[in-house]
Amino acid sequence: MIRIAIDGPAGSGKSTMAKIIANKLKINYLDSGALYRIIGYYCVKNNIDLEDKKSIKDILPQIKIDLKDHKYFLNDEEISEQIRNAESGNYASMVAKVPEVREKINQILRTMSQEMSTVIDGRDIGTVVIPDAEIKIFLTASVEERAKRRYDELSEKGKKVDYKSILEQIIFRDKADSSRSIAPLKPAEEAIKINTTNMDIEEVTKKIIEIIKEKNYGN
């Protein structure tokens, strides 16, 4: 069994790479960010102030999250598309400040990763969630490149987006993720860092597969 942690800031390509690596190794992919987005989405939908940590904590027992056929369900309702916008990303950063939210999600991820080989992407997978993961990768890229990628991704889906707004949201997200008191965004000491600013998907994939093989996994 192998557990691969891929961490990094918003727009660094960690979700894309995690999916590709999981597919190549024929193992499971777990998206931790989606779980935070789901909780943020649920809070906003129910008019919970995202600065009100007590209310967020109190609402957690009402939330049931399931993953079926690579689709996300909130209380038996599929919401895969609803949680893939920039606003949901900001909601995720805000609810992630609540210790009880993090513990709920971390426990879900730990339980799943103990039962099967997995690739998990997030912001504290290698430092907090699975600190004993066999492989730890930390992806990054310039803020401008990350904003461009997010802009291109949303534009390809036919959504009307503004590059400047996306850039501002990513800068805000970086600050929120890096400065929070609970599990701030940072690479694990033993994580292998890859700056993807000037790399395409194929180059990053090749690099990560090489790292995995060097550690005698995925052969």
UniProtKB/TrEMBL annotation:
EC number(s) per entry: 2.7.4.25
GO-annotated biological processes: pyrimidine nucleotide metabolic process
Catalytic reaction list: CMP + ATP = CDP + ADP; dCMP + ATP = dCDP + ADP
Binding residues for ATP: G8, P9, A10, G11, S12, G13, K14, S15, T16
GO cellular component: cytoplasm
Subcellular localization(s) per the UniProt record: Cytoplasm
Molecular function (Gene Ontology), one example: ATP binding
Domain of life where this protein originates: Bacteria
Enzyme class: transferase
UniProt key word Transferase: yes
Keywords: ATP-binding, Cytoplasm, Kinase, Nucleotide-binding, Transferase
Domain Cytidylate kinase as annotated: residue spans: 4-213
Family named by the database record: Belongs to the cytidylate kinase family. Type 1 subfamily.
Protein name: Cytidylate kinase
Gene (name only): cmk
